[in-house]
Amino acid sequence: MPSWMTWVVIGLAAVGLFAVWQGLGPNQPALVLEGQKISQKEFTKLYENLVAQYQRVYAQYGQDFSKFLQGPAGIERQLQLRSRVIDDLLRKRLIAQELERRRIAISPTDIDDRTEIEFERILRQNNLTEEQAQEILKRQGRTLESFKKELRQAVELHLQTERLRDLVVGPIEPTDQELSAYLEEHREDYDTPEEVHARHILIRVPEGASEAEIAQAKKQIEDIKKELEGGADFAELAKKYSQDPGSAPNGGDLGFFSRGQMVKEFEEAAFSLEPGQVSDPVRTQFGFHLIKVEEKKPAQHPELAQIRERVLKDYIEAERDRRFEQFYNELKARAKIAIADPVLRVFYLYEHAERLEEARQEYAKLKGPNQKLHIARVLQKKLEALGPEAAPELVIALKEEILHLWLAQMTHWPLADRSYAVAQISALQPNELPGQAFFQIAVGAVDETVGVLQKRLKEYGVRESVVLAGGEGQIAVWARTDHASALARLLSVQGRLELKRVLREGAVGETLRATGLGEQAVKDRAEAEKPGSGRSYIVAATPLIEPLEIKEIAVQTNPAGRPAGPIVRVRVRESTSQRLAQALGQTDQTLAIVIDNIVYGTVVMGASLRELLAQRGSVFEIQFEDAPTASLEEAQALAVALRVGPLPAAVRVTRP
């Protein structure tokens, strides 16, 4: 389709306020635009034609557009496409009214001449004869005469609209200052980066090649370099030896390219050469290259005087479009439009008329499974409209309301569709909201884990939370807590649920043994509890309700004199120190950090450490039980578990 016809057929515009009628019954037309009725059948056909256009375009890239119209996101895309049909129809109607009001007419001769020119252009562009075009149209159930008639109507409308544009826009005579400002605003359209024209010869090195294969490829490229030094022609050697099928037949010619288009090593070598120079062998991920630079073009940053005519032409075209769209928006602001479908009517109300509060109230009246989706979208648009100067408390309140709408909406959707709501929530950056945490966890046993998480959140004293299965083994967790980041880290380490350590004893009994994680901890505890082992553990008895103060997490992968593994340094409160010291007594023992009967780590308690614990603000170290397999992430999870409190561990001294 020629560019001059595009806006006639598809034209989209920003919209001001306009009247929206309500109360159309089921037997009424789908639309009434400025008195013009559009039947349900006609509207559906236009919508299906638009979808078919997208289907053809997406098919060229191997994609099925119909999939984009499914699920929650598809609901909105369908509404957007239907709104676009309304826009197309409304634009045609308003332009036609304006042409009639101004009595703009084009002579039949001018229309016929332009139609013939356009028909010949279409044939030439598609490499067709008139007979071939007639045959194609016949297969589509159309005739050449009907096609020419439609083309003539489009040409007439275009010529009339151009005449209208001339009347509306008026003369455009920009000053040099306006042109300079336009040039700077659109610099990327006029500047050109540094470019180099190069050839290359490639000897490939396959991925995972042996040392012998690499050496052989390097020798081959070096031998070719010797031929070049002996006077051989680069292009001929590229045709003979190069293993780049795209450029070898053309003598290795890569044409002009700018920075960022080639791999780093190749680019650096090419831009460092002068015209006529050949590089030494260059190694890239593809193999060994020899590069010859044919020509170089410096970066261009033209001044207005150098390209004034081009900038003037672009400015006038852009200004014509701007003035005409402003004129059209004023027409549309006064238009009367009635939409029968209630959901589409409200969608069009806020998406195109920016009447957000009115749209929110209307959606609240429309009960349906996706009601909260639509209200959330209205509020998201309102959030976008606030701008950076908006009061922080208003932004927070709006984000919270949107977040809760999406959480509530998720419960009405099947698991496969919930990822869409999770993506919308994530875009709100809820973890930046005060006292809130939102994160996703990948798990195996979804239903079981949801129940355990809900129980654990209550135990951690979380006032309000939502735990939902999100589809494909994902769980979405939202919680209102003053320990938002700590809670998120406790329940999720780099997106993985710490079932093996945090949730419950059953995870140790099966999951840990199956994976080997924590296996040594289980064995050590069993050995320690045997009579006569000479070791003792401090295990569960009464809750240690005071949170421990975390001084730091020491990243020590192999501390001197200790088994490999990270260490957590913990500073405890004075009262906690006294309780620990009293419980330990005078006997050297092992302090075990136990959460839900899972041994997290141990501390060997000697006389000096007991004295340290008795001091105010004392510090002790936790060495991970299953070192060296413990990761830094697990150390961080432990630190968070200790920080969050109340710690679901207890203190008791057991004797062998």
Structural features, described:
The chain has 656 residues and is α+β, with helices and mostly antiparallel strands. The chain has 4 domains: 3-168, Triger factor/SurA peptide-binding fold (Orthogonal Bundle), CATH 1.10.4030; 195-297, Chitinase A, domain 3 (Roll), CATH 3.10.50.40; 367-497, no CATH class; 518-653, no CATH class. The chain has 24 helices and 20 strands. It has a 5-stranded antiparallel beta sheet, sandwiched between helices. The protein has a 4-stranded mixed beta sheet with strand order 1-8-2-3. Strands 5-4-7-6 form a 4-stranded antiparallel beta sheet, with helices on both faces. Strand 12 (492-493) and strand 13 (496-497) form a beta hairpin. Helix 18 (484-491) crosses helix 24 (632-644).
Number of domains: 4
Low-confidence parts: 1-26, 488-522, 532-566, 587-606, 612-656
Question: Overall mean pLDDT score?
Answer: 75
Describe the global form: extended
Radius of gyration: 36 Å
Report the span from N to C terminus.
89 Å
How is the largest sheet built, in terms of strand order? 15-16-19-18-17
Helix content: 40-55%
The top-level CATH class of the largest domain is Mainly Alpha
Class from helix and strand fractions: alpha+beta
